[in-house]
Design brief:
Elements (H helix, E strand, L loop, with lengths): L9 E2 H4 L6 H10 L14 E4 L1 E2 L1 E2 L2 E2 L2 H4 L13 E6 L5 E6 L4 E3 L9 H11 L2 E2 L1 H6 L6 E2 L5 E3 L4 E8 L24 E5 L3 H11 L14 E6 L17 E8 L6 E4 L10 E3 L6 H19 L2 H6 E5 L13 H10 L3
Parallel strand pairs: 9-10
Antiparallel strand pairs: 1-3, 2-13, 4-5, 6-7, 7-8, 11-16, 12-15, 12-18, 13-14, 14-15, 16-17
Helix pairs in contact: 6-7, 7-9
């Protein structure tokens, strides 16, 4: 039986929110040749309105959309391991307090990119050497468990508003609030030239042809109408005087790992995202940072919106001619 579930969504336009920087940012990106596109139209390259899972301004949570009438939820329950039959079929789970739940059909392990490999390894599923280090008997040899971890890296820059009295950033008394959506309007999706990507690949010695061919969304860029953040040095004040630009490498090639800290499921595993490890990723990020610099410094709207960059101590502003090493250092300071 097919059950259709509809998750309500709201775009910037449909939410009827109005932020002061929406129009000038659209114009600035347009001057750089980035056209506005319809969100979710099958072609993500360009400037698209942010679309969020909201209804009447309220964030939609899964439990409000999906029926849980036939579901029993156990809170404060930590899975110790998956139980396997002699034929290595998953037949249940054991909690850290010794409670066991048996399955009549199947076990669905959906614990995220960090906890999932941890549970598998605690269950004896994984690379022999890693399991032996923690006294866990290997039941299934699966050497790739815990490897190939990847996530997009996001680098921030903080810019002072030239006219903070307009209420363009959260923290200003004149800011219109964000009860109908988060404080940003646009998602910029951009590609990086094949020539630059191939240069990075040659230096890495690892071809990644999936990045080449037709233009792909290698980068995602947003301008967040918020200054303060727990990331970076220094932290911009959240008083309506600054905004944050965020550049994300959306198709990263760096790969990290998840390994066990111990055989205790209460202990977090050792997570190494290995961010920014490849020259290919550095090439993409540099292109994204330079694109932001052009929007801020090289467009009429950018110069009208922004007065300058809040820089880490001892470092000057990134200019249009910023070198690779200068950008890389800034990324390592203000990225996550």
């Amino acid at each position: 039986m097919l059950i259709r579930i509809q998750v309500p969504t709201a775009s910037v336009t449909s939410s009827a929110r109005t932020y002061p920087l929406a129009a000038p940012l659209k114009a600035a990106w347009g001057r750089l040749g980035i056209p506005q596109v319809v969100t979710n139209n099958g072609n993500s390259l360009g400037l698209a309105e942010i679309v969020e899972a909201r209804t009447n301004g309220t964030r939609v949570v899964a439990s409000s959309v999906y029926s849980l009438s036939n579901v029993t939820i156990k809170t404060r329950s930590l899975v110790q391991r998956i139980l396997l039959s002699p034929s290595k079929r998953a037949i249940g789970v054991e909690l850290d307090n010794g409670t066991i739940y048996h399955s009549s059909k199947e076990i669905i392990l959906s614990a995220g990119s960090i906890r999932t490999p941890q549970v598998l390894m605690l269950s004896g599923i994984g690379p022999l050497e890693e399991l032996q280090k923690h006294g866990i008997q290997q039941i299934v040899d699966s050497p790739e468990i815990g490897k190939n971890l990847w996530d997009h890296i996001a680098a921030r820059q903080y810019f002072r508003l030239r006219k903070p009295e307009l209420g363009a950033s959260f923290g200003s008394p004149a800011f219109p609030g964000y009860t109908n959506g988060n404080p940003f309007d646009w998602w910029v999706s951009a590609s990086v030239s094949e020539a630059a990507l191939k240069k990075g690949m040659r230096m890495d010695g690892v071809p990644t042809p999936e990045l080449l061919g037709e233009p792909r969304p290698h980068l995602g860029i947003i301008t967040h109408y918020v200054g303060g953040s727990e990331y970076g040095d220094p932290v911009a004040p959240m008083d309506g005087t600054h905004v944050t630009t965020i550049v994300m490498v959306t198709l990263p090639t760096s790969r990290g790992s998840v390994t066990l800290r111990s055989s205790d499921p209460k202990e977090n595993p050792i997570t190494d995202p290995n961010f920014y490890a490849t020259e290919t990723d550095r090439v993409m990020m540099r292109e994204g940072i330079r694109l932001v610099q052009r929007m801020v410094l090289d467009t009429e709207e950018g110069r009208d919106m922004f007065e300058g960059e809040l820089c880490p101590k001892g470092k000057g502003k990134l200019g249009l001619d910023a070198g690779d090493e200068e950008i890389d250092w800034r990324v390592r300071v203000n990225a996550s």
